[in-house]
Design a protein that fits this description.
Elements (H helix, E strand, L loop, with lengths): L2 H4 L1 E21 L8 E20 L3 E3 L3 H14 L5 E8 L9 H16 L6 H7 L8 H7 L3 E4 L11 E5 L6 E6 L9 H9 L5 H20 L3 H19 L11 H12 L3 E5 L6 E5 L2 H17 L3 E5 L7 E10 L2
Parallel strand pairs: 3-4
Antiparallel strand pairs: 1-2, 1-11, 2-4, 2-5, 5-6, 7-9, 7-10, 8-9
Helix pairs in contact: 2-3, 7-8, 9-10
């Protein structure tokens, strides 16, 4: 092989690692005070989306969720009036339509990489708004930018994404047991819009109860690392919100009945804060330590596998997405 073919050139590229998020419930689906929704969420360290973006001779993408990544990079390049073309390589992706914020995290990862590569400043909320994310919740954008435990203030009269009201570190010792069902998918796209429109009116008294639970039990439990208080509040929030959404989920607060059964078994075994993230099918349960998470995992993993489910142990992620330069080696010809 000639020396010419062996010569290498370094091409600048950017790697982005973006965390999944759990949507733990809403504050106010009534909207009588002028704001609707109000979301509770948490960034978690697994699963995650990891991708590399670089300049190229044409638009291209590869890896899981490559079509969505390609659509995102083309859209951002068009909106920002960029003249270049780009390649996106997705190394791993948050499962789609699982209630983990996959679409938002992928779009934000592409947008942040593109703008950083071109020397442009960015904010996650603005990136999300450019590609019409954050219609009801700012949890995904806040998880991308800051990580941690998040509460937003819901949508008001403007077209802006909801404001973040609370951002707190999640206790480092606590763990989340995620229950994944790859055979099911949560409501999404046009079906989600239709499902929200078809929901019955949400009682003002229920919204009041949710807000009281958040302010007087959930947040104090988080701040004082009292998982029993935190968990009891979250389980009740999930019961109220899940009951409201049951009509759009076949009469159940669980999109996947198998996930619901496994979540009940985790509750019986001592886990706290049982529920479903967003439209599911992913379920969750909280425990106070890594040892407790391992105990519950090993006691139930065979049963979960028999039901076609996966249990995964996650930690809260108290930092946002990681964007870093990397070098791609390309041979000169």
């Amino acid at each position: 092989m000639s020396a010419l073919l062996q010569r290498q050139q370094s091409t600048r590229a950017l790697r982005v690692l973006a965390p999944a998020r759990l949507h733990l419930g809403f504050l106010d689906l009534n909207g009588g005070l002028g704001r609707r929704y109000g979301s509770i969420g948490l960034a978690v360290d697994t699963p995650a989306t990891e991708l590399c973006l670089r300049r190229a001779q044409g638009f291209s993408s590869s890896g899981p969720e490559s079509e969505r990544a390609l659509k995102a990079v083309r859209r951002f390049a068009e909106i920002l009036a960029l003249e270049g073309q780009y390649s996106v390589e997705v190394a791993r992706a948050i499962p789609a339509h699982a209630g983990l914020g996959s679409g938002t995290q992928l779009a934000l990862a592409v947008g942040a990489a593109l703008m950083t590569l071109e020397g442009l400043s960015w904010q996650a909320q603005r990136l999300g708004e450019l590609v019409e994310r954050g219609a009801r919740s700012a949890i995904g954008m806040a998880a991308f930018e800051q990580g941690g435990f998040i509460i937003d203030g819901g949508r008001g009269a403007s077209d802006r994404a909801p404001p973040v009201l609370v951002r707190a570190d999640f206790p480092v010792d606590w763990r989340v047991l995620l229950i994944l069902d790859q055979t099911a998918a949560g409501v999404h796209g046009d079906r989600e819009t239709e499902a929200f429109a078809a929901l019955p009116p949400f009682p003002d008294s229920a919204a009041s109860r949710l807000c009281r639970l958040v302010l007087m039990r959930l947040l104090p439990g988080l701040k004082e690392t009292d998982i029993a208080a935190f968990g009891s509040a979250l389980s009740e929030i999930q019961d109220i919100v899940g009951g409201h959404f049951a009509a759009a989920q076949g009469g159940s607060k669980w999109t996947s009945r198998g996930v619901g059964r496994m979540a009940s078994r985790l509750a019986e075994a001592g886990a706290h804060g049982i529920g479903q993230s967003s439209w599911g099918p992913t379920g969750f349960a909280f425990v106070s330590s890594a040892d407790e998470a391992a105990r519950l995992y090993h006691s139930l993993v065979e049963d979960a596998t028999a039901e076609g489910l996966e249990i995964r142990i996650a930690s809260g992620r108290n930092t946002g997405a990681h964007v870093e330069p990397m070098l791609i080696k390309k041979a000169n010809t």
